[in-house]
Amino acid sequence: MVIFQKRVTDLTELALSRFVARARRAAGLKGLVNVLLTSSAEMKSLNRRFRGKDKPTDVLSFPAEPDAQKQFAGEIAISAEIAAHNAWALRHSPAEEVKILVLHGVLHLRGYDHECDNGQMARREEQLRAKLHLPLVLIERTGRKR
User: Which of the residues 26, 42, 60, 117 has the least number of beta carbons within 10 Å of its own beta carbon?
Assistant: First the structure.
């Protein structure tokens, strides 16, 4: 399920739903994924509540409980505002940026963690980015851990 609390230029719910399905298959993630496109204010609230960080962020992933993961993999929240800003700065479309963030979130739901995996997630994200025809991956372009 895709929920647009904030709209993204040139991106429909249907197009994003189809991309989520492609990203899940490419990453080998079983179970459905819900995606929320929301405001930076909401992302700040979620980040504070679930990660103890009092600032907005571009993407958050919430894995499902282990007993539910065969049918439901988890949820991804994305700031439409940060996605639009990053897209402008990196010279690609906001729709592409949202897809990059979805892929990043899917990999987190798959169990990858770029903060402690010695580059394993970055390598996998790069492979899948190429397969899914996306611009630079999130980790490699920022050169930072989030």
Answer: 117
Contact 139, 121 (CB under 8 A): yes
Q: What is the pTM of this model?
A: 0.89
- HEC-encoded secondary structure of 12-77: CHHHHHHHHHHHHHHHCCCCEEEEEEECHHHHHHHHHHHHCCCCCCCEEEEECCHHHCCCEEEEEE
Say if 30 falls within a structural domain. yes
The CATH number that applies at residue 38 is 3.40.390.30
**Mean pLDDT of the chain, nearest integer:** 90
Establish if 146 belongs to a structural domain. Answer: no
Whether residue 18 is contained in a domain is answered as yes
Task: Give 106-130 pLDDT, tens digit per residue.
Answer: 999 999 988 888 889 989 999 999 9
Amino acid at 126: E
Residue 145 CB-density burial (10 A; 0-12 exposed, 13-18 middle, 19+ buried): exposed
Total count of domains within the chain: 1
pLDDT digits (tens, 9 = 90+) for 55-78: 999 999 999 988 776 799 999 999
Residue 67 lies in a domain: yes
